[in-house]
């Protein structure tokens, strides 16, 4: 591809940014203006036209998915040499650096990465040990304080010293726990997420030679979403770029949404102070969204005081108005989403993959998920930990982690009695004490348990057995692929046999998940046929998995509706976007409503959400909703009010406008707003939702159903209705289909079934 081809269709500013390769460069621009695209083309240009060797280029993205996509694009532009570019997240970059060098900090290179559940177990153990009540000292909030300290690059000693004068007893305890926590992690040869970056910086500070090696390696550095870097990430980029100063960062201060995780918007605003020779390029043309969507986004963000004004415009069409629906309940809201997905697909030939449903908090996904399930619409939840948080998957991962790193006592404790082996909590406590007394890992304590006099003979025998099985498995690690090792574990530990014996529905679901996990290991094995070092495949596999971030998805092939939080949506785009739960107290969060700084961050999040939409945006909320076990009634979100009413088409559940195509009345007070919207969507009766969709979508709603009815379904064949619940649009059918489908619960109104 020639230089000109790389620049085809780029506007002047974008071209300038691609060609400006030497020295520090800041690309500051609004959403959808091609920042990420420019980065990709710039990398291709460096290699192709500037003869920079691909391995001298580093690109840091916010998620693994973004990294994969960027790499794919570079390879498409350049061919296989693009594979040599290091494109990764901050965390993945640091794992790679630490795997080669962490021994210089006194750690084993096969270190494991502690996930949230291990971190919590560890904190709970420490609190117990130090005699602090976990009710007073909430483990989660302690962990978040520790995380903040690490993001600010404070070691335990520094944290303690810094807070000494404060005299706050709570902070004192945090300091003490933080100190112990680091020691315990070290003993387990384990690091947490924040350590990955902090320890890389420590390594660079302590070992100038290592730093120099990476400075010479990464002569051209790129960072996407720079507005969301925290202090530690900022330092890392600064250290790496110090020698050549070819640092190109791109971002949008209006999309800074990780302040709560220590991100510092000033990193982007101060870039010119950090690099006085920096060149700054502003991109102003948006290529993603319709004029209507862009206007809405601009009008919302303009309400923030702490920002530099910019002029984001587009040549795209005006497009459709934004549809706004105030539902009666969360179920009504979900039905509205499903109805409109179906009608959009029908009218505009979209596929499921063209839709995203965005919400403020993960807890809001459940209702929409249920409605999608029952309507038989495929969906995926990004970052909802649908899969990896399941117990059986966590158990297997703990086994594998222990195989990779026998020092990891947290993982060992998770599975020592899983499946049940008669090793109760009291015995585990004694075993841990025994390990501590001898300065052993708990694994070593298991291997030497016959020396222990405290444990009863039965427990001792059980532990001895367990130790023997684990040792035997561990010896096989160098010889086996990850899949074979997993199968061995499932068999030798009796894990699978126990599930099979239990014959419950739950157990069979767990077995299915394990099978799914084996397809993940298989994929990995296929992609890594020959690992250089014995056992390194397992370590790499576990690293990959622990880096699956909140925004990363497992399956990407089949078109599915995407459900995710607004945070996870950063950088992505979808033709049709639903932002649900647009209510004060939910979005913005109630705690942000009285704090102007937090409110501004919520508003930036609204800006991120709105600008994900390419063609059509839906905003919904509900008059009353059940959330966290409480029913609440909230006025419409103030962010809706901030959108020019002429851009909005408020509809009732029929899909008819209730505002003649525009919100004419100003709705400036919550009361006013509430009155304004309270009547907009009386629930219109059973079949009203389907009026907008054509009749071939589903005739099932208007029919009556009784147990025993036969139905046919395209994919699942002929089934029998075994249960009917509810009426009208709420009618749910349990239908027994032939194996392997089994019983499915479907919403009669939406399911693609016909009566036979
Ligand atoms: P965000 O702030 O959301 O991360 P961004 O600034 O990174 O957005 P991109 O994702 O790079 O924007 O681009 C937005 C969309 O516009 C993409 O679909 C991209 O392919 C398209 N695009 C960018 N520049 C051009 C161009 N010059 N011509 C055509 N399409 C473009
Ligand atoms: Mg981007």
From TrEMBL:
Region ranges (Disordered): 651-704
Residues that hold ATP according to the record: 29-36
Keywords tagged on the record: ATP-binding, DNA-binding, Helicase, Hydrolase, Isomerase, Nucleotide-binding
Flavoprotein is among the record's keywords: no
GO MF annotation terms: 3'-5' DNA helicase activity; ATP binding; DNA binding; hydrolase activity
SUPFAM superfamilies from the UniProt entry: P-loop containing nucleoside triphosphate hydrolases (SSF52540)
Biased composition (Polar residues): 668-704
UvrD-like helicase ATP-binding domain sequence ranges: 8-290
Pfam families: PcrA_UvrD_tudor, UvrD-helicase, UvrD_C
The enzyme's E.C. designation: 5.6.2.4
GO cellular component: cytosol; DNA helicase complex
Keyword Secreted: no
Residues annotated as domain UvrD-like helicase C-terminal: 291-571
BP-aspect Gene Ontology terms: DNA replication; recombinational repair; response to radiation
Catalytic activities: ATP + H2O = ADP + phosphate + H(+); Couples ATP hydrolysis with the unwinding of duplex DNA by translocating in the 3'-5' direction
Family: Belongs to the helicase family. UvrD subfamily.
Protein name: ATP-dependent DNA helicase
């Amino acid at each position: 591809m020639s230089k000109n081809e790389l620049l085809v269709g780029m506007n002047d500013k974008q071209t300038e940014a691609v060609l400006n390769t030497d020295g520090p460069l800041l690309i500051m621009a609004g959403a959808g203006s091609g920042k990420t695209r420019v980065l990709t083309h710039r990398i291709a240009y460096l290699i192709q036209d500037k003869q920079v060797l691909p391995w001298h280029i580093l690109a840091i993205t916010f998620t693994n998915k973004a990294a994969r996509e960027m790499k794919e694009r570079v390879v498409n532009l350049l061919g296989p040499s693009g594979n040599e570019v290091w494109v990764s997240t901050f965390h993945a970059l640091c794992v790679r650096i630490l795997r080669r060098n962490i021994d210089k900090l006194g750690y084993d290179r096969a270190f494991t990465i502690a996930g949230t559940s291990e971190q919590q177990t560890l904190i709970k153990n420490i609190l117990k040990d130090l005699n602090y009540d976990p009710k007073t000292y909430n483990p989660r909030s302690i962990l978040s304080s520790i995380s903040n300290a690490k993001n600010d690059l404070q070691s335990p000693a520094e944290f303690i010293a810094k807070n000494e004068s404060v005299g706050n007893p709570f902070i004192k305890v945090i300091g003490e726990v933080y100190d112990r926590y680091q020691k315990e992690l070290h003993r387990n040869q384990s690091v947490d997420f924040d350590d990955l970056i902090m320890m890389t910086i420590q390594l660079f500070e302590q070992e100038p030679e290592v730093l120099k090696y990476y400075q010479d390696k990464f002569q051209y550095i790129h960072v996407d979403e720079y507005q969301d870097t925290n202090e530690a990430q900022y330092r890392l980029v600064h250290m790496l770029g110090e020698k050549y100063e070819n640092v190109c960062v791109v971002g949008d201060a209006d999309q800074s949404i990780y302040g709560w995780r220590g991100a510092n918007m000033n990193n982007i605003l101060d870039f010119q102070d950090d690099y006085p020779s920096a060149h700054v390029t502003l991109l102003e043309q948006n290529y993603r969204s319709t004029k209507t969507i862009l206007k809405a986004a601009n009008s919302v963000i303009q309400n923030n005081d702490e920002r530099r004004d910019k002029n984001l415009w587009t040549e795209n069409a005006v497009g459709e108005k934004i549809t706004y629906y105030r539902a009666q309940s969360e179920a009504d809201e979900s039905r509205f989403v499903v109805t409109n997905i179906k009608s959009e697909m029908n009218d505009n030939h979209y596929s499921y993959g063209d839709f995203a449903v965005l919400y403020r908090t993960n807890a809001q996904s459940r209702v929409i998920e249920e409605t999608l399930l029952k309507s038989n619409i495929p969906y995926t939840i990004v970052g909802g930990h649908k899969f990896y948080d399941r117990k059986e998957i966590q158990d297997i991962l703990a086994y594998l982690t222990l195989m990779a790193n026998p020092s990891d006592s947290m993982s060992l404790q998770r599975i020592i009695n899983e499946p049940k082996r008669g090793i109760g909590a009291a015995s585990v406590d004694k075993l841990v004490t025994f390990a501590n007394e001898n300065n052993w890992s708990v694994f070593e304590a298991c291997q030497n348990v016959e020396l222990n006099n405290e444990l009863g003979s039965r427990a001792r025998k059980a532990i001895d057995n367990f130790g023997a099985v684990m040792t035997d498995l561990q010896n096989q690690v160098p010889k086996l692929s990850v899949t074979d090792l997993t199968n061995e574990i499932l068999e030798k530990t009796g894990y699978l046999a126990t599930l099979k014996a239990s014959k419950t529905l739950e157990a069979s679901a767990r077995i299915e998940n394990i099978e799914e996990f084996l397809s993940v290991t298989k994929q990995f094995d296929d992609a890594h046929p020959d690992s250089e070092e014995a056992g390194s495949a397992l370590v790499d596999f576990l690293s990959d998995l622990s880096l699956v971030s909140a925004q990363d998805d497992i399956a990407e092939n089949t078109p599915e509706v995407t459900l995710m939080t607004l945070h996870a949506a950063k950088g992505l785009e979808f033709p049709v976007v639903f932002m649900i739960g647009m209510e004060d107290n939910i979005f913005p969060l109630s705690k942000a409503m009285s704090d102007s700084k937090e409110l501004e961050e919520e508003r930036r999040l609204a800006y991120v959400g709105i600008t994900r939409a390419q063609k059509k945006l839906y905003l919904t909320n509900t008059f009353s909703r059940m959330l966290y076990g409480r029913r609440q009634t909230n006025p419409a979100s103030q962010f809706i009010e901030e959108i020019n009413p002429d851009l909005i088409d408020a509809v009732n559940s029929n899909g008819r406008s209730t505002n003649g195509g525009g919100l004419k009345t100003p709705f400036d007070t919550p009361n006013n707003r509430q009155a304004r919207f309270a009547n907009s969507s009386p629930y219109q009766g059973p079949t009203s939702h389907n009026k907008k969709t054509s009749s071939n979508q589903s005739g099932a709603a208007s029919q009556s159903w009784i147990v025993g009815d036969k139905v046919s379904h395209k994919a699942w064949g002929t089934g029998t209705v075994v249960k009917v619940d509810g009426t009208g649009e709420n009618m749910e059918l349990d239908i027994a289909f032939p194996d392997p489908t089994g019983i499915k619960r479907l919403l009669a109104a939406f399911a693609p079934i016909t009566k036979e």
